[in-house]
Amino acid sequence: MKTTLSSSSMLRSLTISLMRLSTSSAVAPLPLTTPFGHQLHHTLQSLQTDSQNANGVLHALVDVSTATQQITLNSLSHFTTCQPAASDRKIIDDYLDFNVKMLDTCNDITEKIDTIRNYVESLKVVSHLLQSNIEPHPTTLARAKHLLDSCHNAMETNKRPFKRFFSQKLAQSSSSDSLLGEILGGSKAVTSMVCEILRTALSFKSKQRLSLLPQSTRSSSWSCSLQLLQKQIKKHQKSGSSMMLVELHQTVKEAHNLRNQIKGRNKTRSGDVEELKTRCEELEAEIKPFEGKVKEMYKHLISVRMALLGILSSQF
């Protein structure tokens, strides 16, 4: 029998895999040729100590992306006093185009959080309507059914796939031989991966697949860490595991169960109603911190953008 791993098991495995990266004698350390590469390598490695559970890893991933933007911003200060190469103009232009797409993605994720919050509010009304041990009045039952149907329809509508921004072009920019190419390539790679994982975790589509970054031709310590993480994701994708946020998956499951009971004209069980209420509270508590973290990542992406526009105006 094929075993399907839970998203919690999967993300825990990803954390353990990063721990092995620093302890395994089979992996020879790559030279850290630039301050940026050194800092990003250790930022990616920090995932091993942030958390041992699935949701903790998701939070840590957003923090790592934000930290990567700060490292990028600090590294760009070198180019405010040093004339960049002429070829760097195209690298900057490509990044600015990518940056807009990532800002749009952050807005998409924020909208997804709002959708989940509205979904939870509707389900809390349903649990309130059905919480009595007495069989609800037909009018009350009809209202609960209408709300559950609305939730189901909203969930189906929001299963639409996100736009994908992983491409060979992104991998090529990560493999640039220039210092600026390495800095902006690293920023692109980490931000893309984190946004892809986060928006999948917040999706109502439990079987949504992740698009992974093509392997870069540039060999560095940070790219090795990133590729190891992606290999583990790919491995668990093949096992059929879901990246959907645990609390969201459980809440959707309970709402679906209660909806089927009402549609089948079965008596709603108080235990199921209480279970839905509990799941809603857990999801509500878990989803709130994500919004602040995504907004913080957005601010850092804006800061990097402004720094690059400043370099363009002063140096080109």
TrEMBL record:
Top-level taxonomy: Eukaryota, Viridiplantae, Streptophyta, Embryophyta, Tracheophyta
Key word NADP present: no
Lineage top rank: taxon: Eukaryota
Instruction: List the InterPro entries hit by this protein, alphabetically.
Output: BPS1_pln
The residue stretches assigned to a coiled coil in this entry are 266-293
Protein name in UniProt: Uncharacterized protein
| Record bears the keyword Coiled coil | yes
Which segment of the chain is annotated as a signal peptide? Answer: 1-26
* GO BP annotations listed: root development; shoot system development
Keywords, comma-separated and alphabetical: Coiled coil, Signal
